[in-house]
Amino acid sequence: MSDTRTVLVTGGTLGIGKGIARVFAKNGYNVVITARNAEKGAVVEQELKAFGRGDVMFVPGDVTSLDSMKAAVAATVEKFGGLDVLCANAGMFPSAKLDDMTEQDWDDIFDVNVKGMLFSIQAASEQLKKSKAGRIVITSSITGPITGLPGWAHYGATKSAQLGFMRTAAIEYAPFGITVNAVLPGNIYTEGLADLGEAYLKTMTSSIPMKRLGDVEDIGVAALFFAQENAGYITSQSLVVDGGQVLPETLEAVDA
């Protein structure tokens, strides 16, 4: 096995996942990204190779399929000889008000955000146990664990569920030297956030003390912190990365 550490990032071709992958690539990791869109994956693979001192590989993967995630891990091991870090990042955030929310809306988001996290971890756990410093980093959110937003009750429920899962997972994996932590992004500028429109972006920016939306690499830096070998005594912790968004009691406090 190479001395270069290897990370697998689910949902690594867009938004926060791509930002996480880019930070790891810049810091010398071998990076494997998974997503369902193979065409997009091939493009992002080449983009990330320009940043990295390690190697980058795209592997098609669907987090809602355990077999698919096992195949992604197997391809990672075949290419790089092992796996040290899993960034369980893949997720979706459709909007649906409670009175309009369908059973399918609920099931779909839990399949990707919660079951997808579980399958990713189950697929990776054997290899992470073999690493001298196995790490699991979950992309949660401030929405659900800390804040609420109309239309995202089902999303918030999945993000809170991830943190409940994390606490027991951290206990179960501790004997193997594997840590399990979570990053809780605030409003990060991504393709998905841009789709919500300029009015939304302006409102969100005005509510953040730092007066800017986060960058995807802000989340990548937090994930990298948890992933380092020397972070081995930190587990079951949640790191909020939101520019201070959750701090003000009122919007007026931001400009006081």
Characterise the protein shown here.
The protein has 256 residues and is of the alpha/beta class. It has one domain (6-254): Rossmann fold (3-Layer(aba) Sandwich). Helices cover 46% and strands 14% of the residues. The chain has helices at 15-26, 38-49, 66-80, 103-130, 153-173, 191-194, 198-206, 216-227, 251-254, and strands at 6-10, 30-35, 56-60, 85-88, 135-139, 179-185, 238-241. Strands 3-2-1-4-5-6-7 form a seven-stranded parallel beta sheet, sandwiched between helices. Helix 3 runs parallel beside helix 4. The radius of gyration is 18 Å and the shape is globular. The protein starts with 5 loop residues before the first strand and ends with a helix.
Assigned CATH architecture: 3-Layer(aba) Sandwich
Mean pLDDT: 95
The CATH C-level class name: Alpha Beta
The CATH superfamily name is: NAD(P)-binding Rossmann-like Domain
Rounded Rg: 18 Å
Beta percentage is 5-15%
Helix content: 40-55%
**What is the end-to-end distance?**
55 Å
Biggest sheet: strands, sense, closure? 7 strands, parallel
Please mark out the parts with pLDDT under 50 across 5 or more consecutive residues, or reply none: none
Task: Order the strands across the largest sheet as they lie in space.
Answer: 3-2-1-4-5-6-7
Basic shape: globular
For this structure, the CATH topology is Rossmann fold
Reading the helices and strands in chain order gives EHEHEHEHEHEHHHEH
